[in-house]
C-alpha cells in the first residue's frame, strides 16, 4: 500500500478488529435460550409452545442421552489413544445441540450428518459401536441408513447439504403423489467451517427456490480445526438465511431444552410445506477437532475456561438438582449405565474384524463390471501364488 | 423405423423414460421452457410438468448434489450439464459423492443418477464449449461412461443409462446432434457397455467413439481406395471399455489406431494402447497409434479445424502403422 489514507480506512480497520476478536461465549440478545448456565429454566414467548416439555422425566431423558454420548465420546477417545481406532472426532461440548435436535426428529424424517453427529446418531437408534467402524478403518460407512434414517457420515464438508435438499425435493414429490404419507423433512447438519463451502450456498438456493422441506442445522462450535468462526462469517450465521428468503434462528446450542423446542418448530415449519429453516446452534467445541489435533497451538486456555460454565450437561444437572427433579440416585444410576456401555463398546470394537480386499471389489458397482471382475480375478491369482510359500521360505 | 436426428432420438428416449417410470425426472439449466440450449428436452416440460422437468438454479454442484438426494429417495434423476466445460463445479459431487456412495455404504446404497453432457468441438464456439473431459471421469471408479455416435444408440443409451443401477455419464457428441439416421424404437441394441464393430476389415483396426465415429468410417472408406481393409469399432462405452471386442479385432488385423478428440496424454487411447499391448502383444505388427488432441487447452475456434482429428490424421496414423 502507498500509505495514502483512503476515506474508508477507518471503517476498514474497525472491521478488521472485529474479525480478529476472539470468539466469545455471548450469543447476543437474539439467541433463543430456555435454560441459562446457572440452571434457571424460563419459558420462551415464541418457542415455548414447541417444547416437548420440561417435566422431570423428559429432562432426565435428555440428560441421560447427553451423559451417555459424552461418556461414549471419552471412551472412543481412549480407544483411539490405545490404537484401537485410527482417529476420533470428539463431540464434547455439543451434546445439547445434537441431542436436542435429534430428539425433535420423527421417524419419517431423514438426517444427513457431517462426521461429528454421534449424539444425533444415538437419538436415531444407530448402535454406538457401529459408529466406530469407520474410525477403525474397516468401512467408510458403518450402518444401514435405511434402518434409522440417519445417513452415513460425509467427510467432504457440506456435500451432504445438497443431498439433504435433494432428498427433501423427493419428499415433496412423494407427498404430492400420496397425501396420506406422514409429512417429513430432511435435516442437513454442518458446522461454521462448512458454512463457507459453496455447496451450502447452493443448497440454500435450491431449498429456497423449491421451498424444500429441509432444516439446515448449523452447529457453530466456533472452530474449524484451527480457524475461528470470525474468519468464516462477519455476521451471525443465522442471519444468512434472510438473504435466501427463509427464516434463520440462533439458539443457545448448549441449552438442550431450547434446541429441542426450536428444532421442533423448524421441523414443523418444513413438514407443513412452509419451506426451509436455518438453525444456528451457538455452541463450543470443548475438545480438539480430532484426536490428531492440538488446540493449544491456536487457542487460549482462557477461552476454553470462559466456555466451561456454559457446559450443556452442567447446567441441566444444576437445574435437575436444584428443582428436585432428579437426585443422587439418578446420577449414580447413570454412572453405572455408562460404565456398562463402555464395557460393551470396548468388547464390540475389539471383536471387529477387518474385511478382505475382495469385499471391496464387490462394492464398487451394482451391476457386473468387466474391469473389476478382471482385476479381482488377477488379484486372486496373485494372492494364490503365495499359498504355501511361508512354509518353504 | 423412423428417421431422426441424434438430438431428436435423445429427446424421444427421455420421453420414453418419463413415460415408463414415474420416478424419472429431468433436471438442469434451461431445460424446461427453453428445452435446453440444444433443445434436447424440447416439449417435455409441457407434457410432464415442472416437477418432472426441472429448471434448476444455475449451479452445477447443486444439480448433481440434489440429484444424489433425490436418488436416495428412490428417484431417477437425469441431469443435463449445459456444456462439457461447465461440469467442473460439479466435479466434487460426481467424484467424491456420486461415484463412491455404493462402496462407502458397503454396497447397501446406490445413487443411479444419469448425467448428460454435450461434449466435443467442431461447432466454432467460445472457450469451455468444446472440450472432451471423459478421461477425467473414466479414472474414477464407481462411474460408468457411455457415448452414442448415432441416433439408434442415442435413443436407447439414454434409457439404458436410466435403467442402470450405477451412476452413468452420457457424453453426447454435440456436433453430431443433427446427424440423421434410422431408429428402431422396438428392438434395443446390445448393452451400452459393449463396443460394436461397424465395419469389418482385415489389415488394421480403428477404434473411435462419439463424434469421431463418422470420421473413422470415412477414413476406412478412403483407405479402402488405397487397398487397405480397415475395421472400425465404435467403442460406445468409455468405462468400462469392452476390451474383448477390441482384442479380438486386433488379433485379426494386427494393427490398431485409436482416435478421440480429447488430448492423447493421459487419455482413453493410452489406456487402450496399454491394455492391448498386454492382451495382444504377439498379434501386434505395429505399435498402437493414438490420434487425438494436443497437450493444450482446447484452442480458439478459428484453429479447431487443425486441432481436431480428421480423416487425414487417421489415414496418416494408419500409414505409420502399415509402415512396420
Judged by helices, strands and strand pairing, the structural class of chain A is alpha/beta
Shape of chain B: globular
Helical element count of chain B?
12
Structural class call of chain B reads: alpha/beta
Q: Helix and strand succession of chain B?
A: EHEHEHEHHEHEHEEEEHEEHEHEHH
Report the radius of gyration of chain A as a whole number of Å.
Answer: 23 Å
What does this structure look like?
With 393 residues, chain A is α/β, with parallel strands linked by helices. Chain A is built from 15 helices and 7 strands. Chain B is of the alpha/beta class and 324 residues long. Chain B is 35% helix and 20% strand. In chain B, helix 1 packs parallel to helix 7. In chain B, helix 10 (268-279) links the parallel strand 13 (256-263) and strand 14 (289-293). At the A-B interface, helix 6, helix 7 and helix 14 of A face helix 3, helix 4 and helix 5 of B.
Task: Describe this structure in a few short sentences.
The complex is a heterodimer of chains A (393) and B (324). Chain A is α/β, with parallel strands linked by helices. Chain A is 45% helix and 8% strand.
Amino acid at each position: 500500500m502507498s500509505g495514502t489514507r483512503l476515506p474508508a480506512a477507518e471503517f476498514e480497520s474497525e472491521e478488521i478488529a472485529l474479525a480478529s476478536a476472539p470468539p466469545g461465549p455471548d450469543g447476543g440478545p437474539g439467541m433463543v435460550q430456555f435454560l441459562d448456565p446457572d440452571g434457571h429454566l424460563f419459558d420462551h414467548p415464541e418457542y415455548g409452545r414447541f417444547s416437548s416439555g420440561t417435566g422431570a422425566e423428559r429432562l432426565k431423558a435428555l440428560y441421560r442421552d447427553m451423559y451417555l454420548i459424552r461418556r461414549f465420546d471419552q471412551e472412543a477417545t481412549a480407544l483411539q489413544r490405545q490404537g484401537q481406532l485410527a482417529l476420533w472426532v470428539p463431540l464434547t461440548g455439543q451434546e445439547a445441540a445434537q441431542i436436542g435436535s435429534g430428539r425433535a426428529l420423527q421417524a419419517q424424517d431423514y438426517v444427513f450428518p457431517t462426521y461429528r453427529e454421534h449424539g444425533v446418531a444415538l437419538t436415531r437408534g444407530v448402535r454406538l459401536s457401529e459408529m466406530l467402524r469407520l474410525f477403525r478403518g474397516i468401512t467408510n460407512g458403518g450402518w444401514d441408513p435405511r434402518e434409522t434414517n440417519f445417513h452415513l457420515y460425509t467427510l467432504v464438508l457440506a456435500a451432504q447439504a445438497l443431498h439433504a435438499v435433494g432428498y427433501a425435493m423427493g419428499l415433496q414429490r412423494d407427498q404430492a403423489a400420496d397425501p396420506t404419507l406422514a409429512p417429513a423433512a430432511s435435516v442437513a447438519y454442518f458446522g461454521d467451517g462448512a458454512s463457507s463451502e459453496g455447496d451450502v450456498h447452493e443448497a440454500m438456493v435450491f431449498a429456497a427456490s423449491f421451498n424444500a422441506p429441509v432444516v439446515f442445522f448449523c452447529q457453530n462450535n466456533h472452530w474449524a480445526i484451527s480457524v475461528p468462526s470470525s474468519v468464516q462469517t462477519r455476521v451471525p450465521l443465522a442471519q444468512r438465511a434472510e438473504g435466501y428468503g427463509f427464516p434463520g434462528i440462533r439458539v443457545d446450542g448448549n441449552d438442550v431444552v431450547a434446541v429441542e423446542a426450536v428444532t421442533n418448530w423448524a421441523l414443523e415449519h418444513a413438514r407443513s410445506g412452509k419451506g426451509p429453516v436455518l438453525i444456528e446452534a451457538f455452541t463450543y467445541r470443548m475438545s480438539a477437532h480430532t484426536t490428531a489435533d492440538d488446540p493449544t497451538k491456536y487457542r487460549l486456555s482462557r477461552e476454553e475456561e470462559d466456555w466451561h460454565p456454559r457446559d450443556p450437561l452442567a447446567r441441566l444437572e444444576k437445574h435437575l438438582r436444584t428443582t428436585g427433579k432428579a437426585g443422587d440416585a439418578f446420577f449414580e444410576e447413570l454412572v453405572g449405565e455408562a460404565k456398562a456401555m463402555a464395557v460393551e463398546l470396548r468388547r464390540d470394537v475389539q471383536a471387529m474384524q477387518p474385511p478382505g480386499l475382495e469385499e471391496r471389489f464387490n462394492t464398487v458397482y451394482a451391476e457386473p463390471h468387466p474391469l473389476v471382475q478382471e482385476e479381482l480375478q488377477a488379484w486372486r491369482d496373485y494372492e494364490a501364488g503365495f499359498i504355501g510359500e511361508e512354509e518353504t521360505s | 423405423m423412423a428417421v431422426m436426428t441424434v438430438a431428436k432420438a435423445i429427446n424421444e428416449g427421455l420421453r420414453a423414460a418419463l413415460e415408463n417410470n414415474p420416478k424419472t425426472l429431468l433436471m438442469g439449466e434451461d431445460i424446461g421452457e427453453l428445452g435446453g440450449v440444444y433443445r434436447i428436452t424440447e416439449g417435455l416440460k409441457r407434457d410432464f410438468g415442472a416437477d418432472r422437468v426441472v429448471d434448476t438454479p444455475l449451479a452445477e454442484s447443486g444439480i448433481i448434489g440434489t440429484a444424489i438426494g433425490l436418488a436416495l429417495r428412490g428417484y431417477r434423476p437425469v441431469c443435463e450439464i449445459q456444456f462439457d466445460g461447465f461440469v467442473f463445479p460439479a466435479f466434487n459431487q460426481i467424484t467424491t459423492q456420486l461415484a463412491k456412495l455404493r462402496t462407502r455404504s458397503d454396497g447397501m446404497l446406490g445413487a443411479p443418477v444419469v448425467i448428460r453432457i454435450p461434449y466435443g468441438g467442431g461447432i466454432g464456439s467460445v472457450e469451455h464449449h468444446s472440450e472432451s473431459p471423459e478421461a477425467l471421469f473414466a479414472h474414477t471408479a464407481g462411474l460408468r461412461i457411455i457415448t452414442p455416435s448415432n441416433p439408434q444408440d442415442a435413443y436407447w443409451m439414454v434409457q439404458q443409462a436410466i435403467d442402470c443401477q450405477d451412476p452413468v455419464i452420457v457424453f453426447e457428441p454435440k456436433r453430431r446432434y443433427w446427424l440423421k439416421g434410422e431408429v428402431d424404437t422396438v428392438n434395443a441394441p446390445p448393452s451400452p457397455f459393449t463396443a460394436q464393430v461397424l465395419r469389418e476389415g482385415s489389415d488394421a483396426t480403428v477404434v473411435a467413439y462419439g463424434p469421431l465415429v463418422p470420421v473413422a468410417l470415412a477414413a476406412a472408406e478412403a483407405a479402402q481406395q488405397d487397398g487397405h481393409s480397415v475395421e472400425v469399432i465404435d467403442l460406445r462405452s468409455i468405462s468400462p471399455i469392452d476390451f474383448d471386442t477390441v482384442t479380438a479385432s486386433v488379433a485379426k488385423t494386427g494393427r490398431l489406431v485409436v482416435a478421440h478428440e480429447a488430448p492423447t496424454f493421459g487419455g482413453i487411447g493410452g489406456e487402450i494402447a496399454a491394455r492391448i499391448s498386454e492382451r495382444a502383444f504377439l498379434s501386434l505388427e505395429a505399435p498402437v497409434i493414438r490420434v487425438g488432441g494436443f497437450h493444450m487447452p482446447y484452442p480458439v475456434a478459428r484453429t479447431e479445424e487443425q486441432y481436431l482429428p480428421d480423416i487425414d490424421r487417421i489415414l496418416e496414423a494408419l500409414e505409420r502403422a502399415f509402415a512396420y
